[in-house]
Fold this sequence. Notes:
The structure is a single chain. Helices cover 51% and strands 10% of the residues. It has helices at residues 8-17, 20-36, 41-60, 72-78, 81-85, 133-141, 145-157, 162-165, and strands spanning 92-93, 98-101, 113-116, 121-124, 130-131. Helix 1 (8-17) crosses helix 3 (41-60), helix 2 packs antiparallel against helix 3 and helix 6 (133-141) crosses helix 7. Zinc ion (ZN) binds at residues 103, 105-106, 108, 112-113, 124, 126-127, 129.
Amino acid sequence: MASYTITHDLCSHMSSRYTHKALKHEITRAKEALEHFPHDKASLDYWRYYIELCEVTLATTKDSAPSYTINASELKKSLNLTAYIGRFTELHTSGIDRYSGLCPLHHDTAPSLFVYSARHDWYCFGCLKGGDVFNFIMFYNDCSFREALALANSELRGSQLSEVWV
Ligand SMILES: [Zn+2]
């Protein structure tokens, strides 16, 4: 008799972590584990419980979107653009909510890059590039918008960088 219990909270938690498709995959994986793992009673109990938990979650919760939906405008607002660009070049205060520094996107000899922190955007008077943080990441890494979004998102969620983004 398994000592595990299945609660509504647990199902909600599972549902927030896994889509229904992923839950079905988990069930398949657990059934394979049941067949192939050494069948001591503890692991049998665990895998049977895990299958039941996935099945109950499937039956009692709505299919949820993956918890990793990225909202570009929220992401932009939740990060500190000055701190982010400041990782690539030294920025100095240059007015209210305005910072300047040597542009890391071209060979700059005088500070041509301006970052407007309150507006969440930047502009370089040397190479005439500008935009928001995603544009900066795209220019700096020569990548697509999608890749820039993913990169910003993963950095935001990385604990060691959280202070840069808050
Ligand atoms: Zn520039």
